[in-house]
Design goal:
Layout (H helix, E strand, L loop, with lengths): L29 H7 L3 H21 L13 H10 L14 E5 L2 E8 L2 E5 L3 E2 L5 H14 L4 E7 L4 H6 L3 E12 L11 H12 L3 E5 L4 H15 L22 E6 L5 E10 L4 E9 L7 H15 L4 E8 L12 H11 L2 H6 L2 H9 L4 E10 L4 H11 L14
Helix pairs in contact: 6-8
Length: 404
């Protein structure tokens, strides 16, 4: 998944910033070992073949006008996101994203042909329900000629809104949430994490919070070096946002300064649930970062937020993994496909599904289900369209919003 954290396969050929999470563990996951045996040319060829249906669809899908929305200033939009319980809410503010606001709430979405894809979930107004917001947005889309609506993530308590609207939801992964009051490095189960943090400390790695005003100057070179080292190919989109350097939007910038004074690892965090929670927004690590630097970075971020009284920290989603058993209503054929893709060498060649899960599991989070919601359905074509708009099955040709 961004789902917002973990989109490390893309490369920003046009200079945009990419959200990423790269495992810093000294123990390679089974998925990483499988992925190392898959030639890059083979993965590229498979991705090209998977993109063919989308290329055909590009030739005949119309460009529709997004529905009109209530006026929304950038400051108001930011306030909505900071109040929201959605950990990926910052995606709604990304440049080029369309936004729809009504009395029931706010959504940010991308457009491809007759499909609208809500990225970051539903942001509800006080007293409103998910059904109110979904019904309003779906009706507005249909008036403009749209035929499909996708939404990621859909929380467990919001699934009933899709059912009531005649749609479907499909378990597609899980979100890693650390309950901060209970977090501790004690115990044998966190021995590996303690060892990696001690190793980083012995190598001179230090945790630093960089003021937002100083972030472009002090961290810009880290971002540029990270982008330069990424493999060329399809750029992830829609569910992949920017690191936010230079923005004044409430993000905080935590970095690991190494013994030579250089920054080679960075994590950004933004507030959620009116300050009661927080979410990892972007995590970048250079390939030559000190071992354990990212482990130390996340651990120290957790400790700082603990002292500030924050209740929970989202590490983001893990797509196509099953730390949570599927429900009895999930279609067996689609679940089989998701399980095989997420656990296969092919799947890990396209995206580090298992590696991402392996890294986040070290912090022993609470796993919350992530569903893909779809209207009128969430079938195999919805999965394909969602994957294409994300960039997993081809280069997405999203209809971008102009202006603020």
């Amino acid at each position: 998944m961004r789902y917002p954290i973990g989109m490390h396969q893309g490369r920003a050929g046009d200079g945009a910033e990419v959200r990423a999470l790269i495992s810093a563990s000294s123990v390679r996951s089974a998925g990483a070992r499988r992925r190392s045996r898959v030639p890059a040319w083979w993965a590229h060829g498979v991705r090209t073949i998977l993109g063919l249906p989308g290329l055909v669809a590009d030739s005949w899908t119309p460009r529709l006008q997004p529905p009109a929305s209530d006026a929304l200033s950038p400051e108001d939009a930011l306030a909505w996101i900071h109040r929201s319980e959605q950990s990926a809410g910052m995606l709604a503010l990304e440049e080029g994203m369309h936004r729809y606001r009504c009395e029931a709430g706010l959504v940010g979405y991308g457009v491809w042909g007759r499909t609208a894809f809500i990225a970051g979930g539903l942001h509800l107004a006080p007293g409103a329900s998910a059904a109110d917001l979904l019904d309003s947005f779906w009706a507005a889309l249909r008036r403009q000629g749209f035929r499909r609506l996708l939404c990621l993530p859909v929380r467990e308590k919001d699934r009933a809104a899709f059912d009531a609207a005649g749609g479907e939801t499909l378990l597609i992964g899980a979100e890693a949430i650390v309950d901060l009051p209970e977090f501790s490095l004690a115990g044998g189960s966190r021995e590996n994490l303690r060892q990696m943090c001690r190793r980083a400390s012995r190598n001179g790695v230090r945790f630093v919070e960089v003021p937002a005003a100083d972030a472009p100057g002090r961290l810009g070179s880290l971002q540029e070096r990270w982008l330069a080292a990424r493999p060329r190919g399809y750029r992830m989109a829609l569910l992949v946002g920017e690191a936010g350097l230079g923005r004044v939007d409430g993000r905080r910038f935590f970095a690991a300064r190494e013994q030579d004074g250089a920054f080679r690892s960075l994590v950004t965090v933004h507030p959620t649930a009116s300050g009661r929670g927080a979410a990892v927004d972007a995590l970048l690590r250079q390939d030559d970062a000190a071992p354990g630097a990212v482990d130390l970075l996340i651990t120290e971020t957790i400790a700082l937020l603990q002292r500030e009284g924050v209740e929970h920290l989202s590490l983001g989603g893990c797509p196509l993994v099953e730390p949570i058993p599927p429900g009895p209503d999930d279609p067996r054929a689609l679940r089989f496909f998701i399980r095989k893709l997420g656990g296969s060498a092919l799947g890990d060649a396209l995206f580090s599904f298992q590696g991402l899960h392996h890294f986040k599991a070290k912090f022993q989070p609470r796993w919350e289900p992530i569903h893909l919601g779809g209207l009128p359905n969430a079938g195999i074509w919805s999965l394909y369209v969602g994957g294409r708009m994300w960039g997993l099955t081809g280069r997405p040709r999203l209809q971008r919003r102009s202006g603020v």
